[in-house]
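Data follows
____________
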Amino acid sequence: MLPKGSKVRIQDINIVGNESIADSKIKKKMKGTKERSRFTLHPDLEQVYVDSLAQPDDFWQTYGFLQPTRAFEKLDPYFRFKLFSSAKFNENKYFEDKGKVIGLYNSKGYRDAVIVRDTTYKTHSQNLNVDMQISEGKKYYFGDITWKGNTRYSDSVLTRILGIKKGDIYNLELLEKRIGKQMSQEGGDISGYYMDYGYLFFQIDPVEVGIRGDTIDYEIRLREGPQATIKEVRIAGNEKTNEHVIRRELRTIPGEKFSRQDLIRSNREIANLGFFNPEKIGMNPVPNVQDGTVDIDYTVEEKANDQLELSAGWGGYIGLTGTLGVTFNNFSLRNIFKKETWDPLPSGDGQKLSVRVSSNGKAYRSYNFSFTEPWLGGKKRNQFSVSLYSSYQNPYAYNDYYKLPGDTTTSTNGHFKVLGASVSLGKQLKWPDDYFTLIYSVNYQQYKLKNYNYFGIPGFESGTSNNVNIKLTLSRSSVDQQIFPRSGSNFMVSAQYTPPYSLFNPDKDYSKEPASEQFKFIEYQKYRFNAEWYVPLSRPMGSDNKTFVLKVAAKFGYIGRYNNRTTLSPFGRFEMGGDGLSNFAIYDRDIISQRGYPVYYTSDPSINPENGQPANYSGFTVFNKYVMELRYPFSLNPSSTIFGLAFLEAANGYKDLNEYNPFRLRRSAGIGMRFYLPMFGLLGFDYGIGFDRLQPGGGLKDAAKFTFMLGFEPE
C-alpha cells in the first residue's frame, strides 16, 4: 500500500475473475477511480493477480474488431484517451467504488459477488496500479413474492406497482427502488403511493423467506400505521416576502391528511414564485407519533429579483437616446401610502409592477406600463393584469440632416403612432389537472399613420386603424422552476378574435374599398400553439444538483380572415428571423426569432435573406418553428445563474396557407450562454450558423450570426 498523503496517478486497473461483466463496464462504474490517458507502442504491463478464468485470445477469429467494446479493450494497452477524467488516486473514493462494483454485480443477479482481494502498488514508471480479484458466484432470479400486512391496497395492486415478476433476474437495488426504500420526487414506488394518502408512519421491509437453487422467494412485510394529519405549518427565512404570499402557494394545509405529493408540489410552487433560491428551499416533516399528526417546517432563502434597465447617450442631431426600465417582481400596492415600507418601493405582496421608457432621439420613443396581481381577491389564484403602452416612430427624423441645400422634394413630416391597452384575467383550472390556466384578455390598439409607406400598400400611407380584440389562452406549466428548468413541460394554445365587422353587412365587398377605409377597423382571427419539454439526461451531481437537460420545443402560428370579402391588414402578422429584438412590437407583430439568420422576408430557403425587404412585404400569416437545445448549468447561484447551451433550430414563415409547407425550413445550429442576474434579468449570447445561408462561394463566415439576447428567451 502507499504511504499516507502521497499523490500519484493511476496507470492501470487490472481486474481478474470477471467472466460475465467486461472490464470496461466495471471501470465505468468506478466514477472516482480512473486510469490515465496513454499512447505508446511498448506498454509496460504489470499485474499481481493471475486470471485463472482467462480464455485464449480469439479476437481475430471471432471478428472482435467489429465489436466496439472488445476493440477498445484490445487497444487499451496502447491507446487510452481520458479527456475529462482525473487519474489521481483517492483512497476514500476507491473504497466507495468497490461498493459500486458489487452493486453492479448485484443488479445483474450475482447476489453472492465479492471482491476477494485487492491491492495497489507503484509501477516502474512511478505511477499506480490497482488490482482486484472478483468472485462472481452464480446468477440468481426472483421467485415467489408475497405480501403481508397490507390493507390499503390489495396484493394484485401492489404486485402491479412493484413491476417484478417471477423469473426476473435478481436485482436488490431495483427491488428497494420499487418499494421506495429511498424516497424520490418522481414517485411511482409503493412507499410513495402510501405517503400520498397520509401514511407517514408507513414501513416496508423485503425479507428473503426461501432460496431454491438459483431462485429467491420474498415476503414483503408492511406496517401501514395510521394516516397522519397535518397539525402545524411553519415558515422561516422570509425576510422581505410576506408570509401569506408563501402560505397561499402551499398544498399542505393544517387539518388535512399528509401527502408526499402535496409536499413536492408545494416546493415547486414556492420555487416558481421567483423570490427565493430554489436550491435552498427546505421541507421538513416532523411526525408526532403520540397523536398521529405531523408538523411541516418550510425554510426559504430570499434572493434579489427586481430588475433595472438603464442606458443613455447623446447623438448630437439625434438627441437623447437610451432606455430606463424598472421591474419590481415583489411589489405591494396596498402599502403604497406607507412611507416606512418604501425600500425603494413597498414590497412583499408578490405583485409585479413594470415601467419602461425608451428613446432614440427624434426617430423613436416608447412608454410601457404594466401591473399584475397574481391572486385577485386573495383567496384563489386569479391573475389580474393591466398594461398601457404608447410608441412613436418618425421615419424622416434624419432627412433634414442629410438634405441637400435647396431640396424641397424630401418629406420631413410623417410618423407612425401606436396607442394600446390590455386587461386580462387568468383562472387556475382543476380539470384536467390544476397545472392548467385559462386566461381571458381584452385588447385595444390604435395605429395612426402619416406619410408612412413602410407597408407598401397603395392608399395606406396615412390614416387611423383600430384593433379591438379578445384573446383566450389555455396554458399548462409543470416545470420545476423558471430560470433553469430541469423537468416538466409548458403548453400554450391561444385564439384571438376581432369583431367580424364584415358579417354585419354581408352585401358589401370590403376588399374593393380604399385601404384607409378597409383597415379603419381591423378584422382577423389568430391562433398560436407553443409546446416545450424539459428532460434531464443525467443524474443530479453535486450539492446544487447540476445535470444536463434537453429542451425540445415546437411552435406554430396562423392569422387569417373571416371571409374573402375582406383584406388582411399588415398588423398582427409574424416576423421571422433575427434575435427577437428588432422592431419589437412596433407593428403589433409577433417577432419569431431564429438564431443564425437575420430577419427574412420570403419562405424560399434558397433566397439569401440579406437580399433586403421586397416592396410588397407585409409579414407572414403562417409560421412553424422547432427547437432542440442541450443545456448545462455552470452556476446555479441565485445571484448569478449561468448555463451554456448548444442548439438546433428549424423555422420558416409563409405568405398564406396555400404556400404552407411544414418541411420547407431554414435550419441553423450554434452555441450560446445565458446569465441570470437579478438586477438585469436574463442575458444571453448566441452564435448561430444558418445552413441555408451557405451559398456557393461563401463559407461559415458568411453564414454565421452573432445574437445578443436581453431580458427574455427568443420566441
